[in-house]
Write a structure and sequence with these properties.
Elements (H helix, E strand, L loop, with lengths): L3 E7 L3 E8 L2 E8 L5 H16 L6 E8 L1 H8 L5 E6 L5 H4 L24 E4 L2 E2 L5 E3 L6 H10 L4 E5 L8 H13 L5 E3 H4 L5 H31 L6 E4 L5 E2 L1 H6 L7 H17 L3 E7 L4 E7 L2 E2 L1 E2 L2 E3 L11 E3 L3 E2 L2 E3 L5 E5 L5 E7 L18 H7 L17 H13 L6 H26 L8 E5 L3 H12 L3 E4 L6 H6 L5 E11 L5 H22 L6 E10 L6 E4 L9 H17 L8 E11 L15 E2 L4 E7 L4 E9 L7 E4 L2 E4 L4 E4 L3 E5 L5 E5 L12 E3 L7 E3 L3
Parallel strand pairs: 1-4, 4-11, 5-6, 5-9, 9-10, 13-23, 23-24, 29-32, 31-33
Antiparallel strand pairs: 1-2, 2-3, 7-8, 11-12, 13-14, 14-15, 14-20, 16-19, 17-18, 21-22, 24-36, 25-28, 26-27, 26-28, 30-31, 32-35, 33-34, 35-36, 37-38
């Protein structure tokens, strides 16, 4: 296989491309093309290969992460989708949990189901929780169901019957019949997409898969065709939300597993940086053009989960989105990116996001017709960005357009000068991110004050210092190639695939032979996917059980021993479950009965070894390239700030804040309260040397009302 590999991450604003050749990396960023994402993909890839002098035929593999599935769910731009379900359960998608995510909001609006009621069809059939057939499938009625779906112009169908995880025969027979009656229309079966207990989540996940499947299939087919057309002969792999890579075929069948594919690459990069620097407690902070992603790294591994909420109507309110039962790197994602739009609400407050200017037209400063101010415009107005060096110098920023947008939208209505209006935008978005990080940390019982932040993404290094001040984080690490951090993370991901199945069992009635048969079947499916992506490669197998005390509502994942399933396995699981439960909740209930709901098998290639970063004496004073006035939100004043070129810095260099470290695709803002050094891996390390004036007041009160000048003041 060729030594050259490509990683491509399509975001809402930019498409990032990284070329790895002989251990060295080269990267570029191009605007995303929302109407045809494959165009931006090819634009970036061909540009980078031309700059590197590499032919398409020399590329050994392409690893691709995309937000296309996520955006389709958020923007409701997926296929016209129908649901075929058990008679009497037509409204399960709307009933959900029968709960309100905000009980005090009398005008609360729950997200509409992806399938409207008129497109939900029912069939007479019934399977029990034990897998036994209670009512046979009424096959004759499926012809009428198909006729109605054709009349409604359905483009994709989800099939989800009650207890299909225990016995998929009715779903499989329904799919056989509908495949003949609805040729060319993709069918998603809950027993394949999410063969797990819990009706609502299983239906929601299956419907979401069906909803995005035609769009993803069209995109992946077009992309594969275009790549072959320009001379690529290498395989194309897709990044999953769980932080592994999989085949094009698996991604096309189960595109719902791609919903967080891009951000999972960033989490993988943060894991590597943490391990290189020997820092077990890390906050991964990825701020791109559309969103900001925050993930906790504990003992060099990102937090993971088995469920995820997509398209939340309230950005940090659990229960306000679409529940998905998929393996995922656990993080919080909010609409706070460089392209997030600033506005004034009905209470005369400055708000930022979640709406984004995206790639078309983009921020006002891009000069492409954008008329509203964004975070990038505010960064430019505060002096953080060089108009001539933005995006590798290919995009000249229009300062006049920025000033007009901020003045007309924020400054004039609030009687602020331009600088204070820009400061308000940045402070609001930084506080929004800080609040999201606090909530995420509290939910995981973590204290961020002892953490190290790893900051990347196109806008991450611009805002990391201020965010660290607000959170009391003493150290920030900005990796090499930070602007394309998620794509860099793709290149270190293992080939991995997880298969899951619910099979209920009390631990006191443990049946090892039955479970071994279930696990063997799951392993066979997982091995098949990994073998197709990495033939002959060494593999690792991880088997887990999802367990809980009898009567509880949620499970704890416990790893099974490696030496097979025997009678002794029950005692091992009881012991491991007790320890894990105590870690999470402070105590265990030794006498409590334990039940197992679900079993998982993950097959993966081994992760590459990570070498520690050798220490270096940081005694060299870095040479600055110039100076310019930059507004410091901590002190509320503009300062004549030295500018350093990242490419000119060497290991051992040191510089004091305030400072700007400029590189071709982003800029790192070093606040006055930090000192920056360059370690032996070329990473920029910001260490807190003094408490800033603003960070001491984490509950600063930002007043932006009427025609009073806004200010931050410490509450008495």
């Amino acid at each position: 296989m060729s030594a050259c590999r490509l990683a491509v991450d399509i975001g809402g604003t930019f498409t990032d491309v990284v070329l790895e050749r002989g251990g060295a990396m080269q990267s570029t960023k191009v605007p995303t093309t929302p109407r045809a994402p494959q165009d931006g993909f090819l634009n970036g890839v061909l540009r980078l290969l031309e700059e590197a002098g590499v032919r398409p035929a020399e590329i050994g593999s392409i690893i691709h992460g995309t937000t296309l599935a996520t955006n389709a769910l958020i923007e409701r731009t997926g296929a016209v989708t129908a649901l075929v379900t058990t008679e009497g359960f037509r409204d399960s998608l709307e009933i959900g949990y029968e709960a309100r995510f905000d009980q005090y909001d009398i005008q609360l609006q729950k997200p509409d189901p992806l399938v409207p009621r008129r497109l939900r069809q029912t069939v007479v059939e019934r399977v029990g929780a034990d897998g036994g057939v209670i009512t046979p499938l009424d096959e004759a009625s499926l012809a009428a169901v198909a006729a109605r779906l054709i009349a409604d112009g359905v483009e994709s169908v989800a099939i989800g019957f009650l207890h299909a995880y225990a016995n998929p025969s009715h779903e499989q027979r329904t799919a056989e019949i509908l495949a003949n009656l609805l040729p060319g229309i993709p069918l998603s079966l809950s027993s394949e997409v999410c063969p797990e207990i819990r009706e609502y989540e299983r239906l929601s996940t299956t419907v979401a898969n069906a909803y995005v499947r035609p769009k993803m299939a069209h995109y992946l087919t077009a992309l594969e065709h275009d790549l072959k057309g320009v001379g690529f002969a290498c395989p194309l792999f897709l990044v999953t939300s769980a932080g592994g890579i999989t085949t094009l075929e698996a991604a096309s069948r189960f595109p719902i597993r791609l919903v967080e594919s891009g951000p999972s690459g960033g989490a993988r990069l943060a894991e590597i940086i943490a391990e290189q620097n020997g820092v077990a407690d890390v906050l991964s902070y990825d701020m791109g053009g559309t969103t900001a992603k925050i993930c906790l790294i504990d003992r060099y591994r990102a937090s993971t989960a088995r469920e995820f909420e997509a398209a939340r109507s309230s950005c940090i309110a659990k229960g306000s989105g679409l529940p998905l039962r998929i393996p995922v790197v656990e993080m919080i994602e909010i609409g706070a990116g460089g392209g997030s739009i600033a506005a004034i609400d009905a209470l005369q407050r400055v708000t930022v996001g979640p709406a984004s200017a995206g790639a078309e037209p983009g921020p006002a400063c891009y000069g492409r017709g954008g008329m509203v101010p964004t975070v990038t415009d505010a960064d430019l107005a505060l002096g953080r960005l060089d108009p001539e060096r933005f995006a590798e110098g290919r995009l000249h920023l229009d300062t006049a357009a920025t000033e007009t947008a901020i003045a007309s939208t924020i400054a004039h209505p609030l009687c602020l000068d331009l600088r204070d209006a820009a400061r308000a935008i940045c402070e609001i978005v930084d506080e929004t991110m800080a609040n999201a990080a606090r909530i995420h940390a509290v939910e995981h019982a973590r204290n961020l004050r002892g953490s190290t932040m790893v900051a990347f993404g196109g806008a991450g290094p611009l805002h990391a210092g201020r965010l660290a001040e607000k959170l009391g984080i003493p150290r920030v690490i900005v990796p090499v190639n930070p602007s394309v951090g998620s794509a860099v993370g793709f290149l270190s991901m293992p080939v991995a695939y997880e298969v899951v199945k619910s099979r209920y069992m009390l631990l006191s009635h443990f049946q090892p032979h039955q479970i071994e048969a279930v696990l063997d079947g799951l392993a066979l499916d997982a091995h098949a996917v990994v073998e197709s992506a990495a033939p002959g490669r060494e593999r690792q197998i991880r088997r887990t059980a999802l367990m809980r005390y009898l009567g509880q509502g949620h499970e704890v994942e416990v790893e099974l021993p490696d030496d097979g399933v025997t009678e002794a396995t029950a005692g091992v699981l009881r012991s491991r479950y007790g320890r894990r439960y105590a870690e999470l909740y402070g105590r265990e209930m030794a006498a409590g009965e334990i039940e197992i709901l679900t079993w998982t098998v993950t097959v993966s290639t081994p992760r590459a070894a990570v070498a520690p970063v050798p220490p270096v004496d940081c005694a060299n004073t870095a040479e600055r390239e110039g100076r310019r006035p930059v507004f410091d939100p901590g002190s509320g004043t503009s300062r004549d700030t030295p500018i350093y070129l990242r490419e000119a810095l060497r290991p051992g260099d040191r510089l004091d804040g305030p400072a700007l470290v400029v590189e071709s695709q982003t800029t790192t803002v070093v606040p006055a309260s930090f000192r920056a050094t360059v370690n032996s891996a070329g990473q920029l390390v910001l260490d807190r040397v003094a408490a800033s004036e603003a960070a001491a007041g984490e509950s600063d009160d930002i007043r932006l009302t009427g025609c009073r000048r806004w200010s931050t003041s410490r509450r008495e």
